[in-house]
Specification:
Transmembrane segments: 21-43
Order of helices and strands: HEEEHEHEHHHH
Strand order of the largest sheet: 3-2-1-4-5
Number of domains: 1
Keywords: Membrane, Transmembrane, Transmembrane helix
Distance between the termini: 52 Å
Structural class: alpha/beta
Largest sheet: 5 strands, mixed
Number of strands: 5
Helix content: 40-55%
């Protein structure tokens, strides 16, 4: 190996170490010292499905864990239209949030200031629900929302479905996507631009792999 090749390899190694250091610091900033963050959107309401009334209970989530200094993403989507199955869905929600930092978003569109009441109601309902089911409490809880125009722009920029929905059954269908949009908006709100772009680049790579996964029948 020539001297130039060795210098180039050393330069690439140092650049990669700097990149990983910036990404790891950004990820720690984002997830807190626990190294585990989950962004939740809960839909827990009655809805009309077709000609008959039906209950819908659902949560969508994006879990971000730090493994070897890099963010690892996992999406969750649990739903039922049967009242008797609601405790199972909520128990899974409580287990997912136990010991993790939680960012709670809202399934309802945020168009005017008054729409913030939906987020406050979601926060109260979330605390009451998690307290009733198995598992310890979250290590932290933040309530976060962004204007619907921002969410729509993020959906277009990240090739995600625009989740401007008012009906609970429609909100339940796109709860997992809404959680991802909430996380993206949260990242941009709490982190500097450079660090945010590093974490979001990792998310884009994960999202691309997810889209390429074969559909299970």
């Amino acid at each position: 190996m020539s001297a130039d090749d060795r210098r180039w390899r050393m330069f690439r190694s140092r650049r990669e170490l700097r990149r990983r250091s910036v990404l790891a610091h950004a990820a720690r900033t984002l997830t807190g010292y626990s190294g585990d963050l989950v962004v939740i959107v809960v839909v827990d309401a009655g809805s009309k499905c077709g000609a008959r009334g039906s209950f819908v209970s659902c949560f969508g989530a994006l879990q971000v864990s730090i493994v070897d200094g890099d963010p690892v993403f996992t999406k969750h989507h649990e739903a039922t239209v049967r009242k008797e199955e609601r405790p199972c869905v909520m128990d899974r929600l409580a287990a997912l949030c136990s010991g993790r930092d939680v960012v709670l978003g809202s399934a309802d569109p945020y168009v005017s200031f008054a729409d913030r009441r939906h987020l406050l109601h979601s926060g109260i309902g979330f605390v009451e629900t998690v307290g009733r089911f198995a598992g310890g409490p979250p290590s932290g809880l933040d309530l976060f929302t962004a204007p619907e125009g921002t969410m729509a722009a993020l959906a277009a920029g990240f090739a995600l479905a625009c989740c401007h929905r008012r009906e609970p059954i429609d909100q339940a269908r796109c709860a997992a996507v809404r959680a991802q949009l909430t996380w993206i908006a949260y990242v941009r709100a709490v982190m500097g631009r450079r660090r945010a772009e590093g974490v979001l680049a990792a998310y884009r790579a994960w999202a691309l792999i997810e889209k390429c996964r074969p559909v299970r029948f």
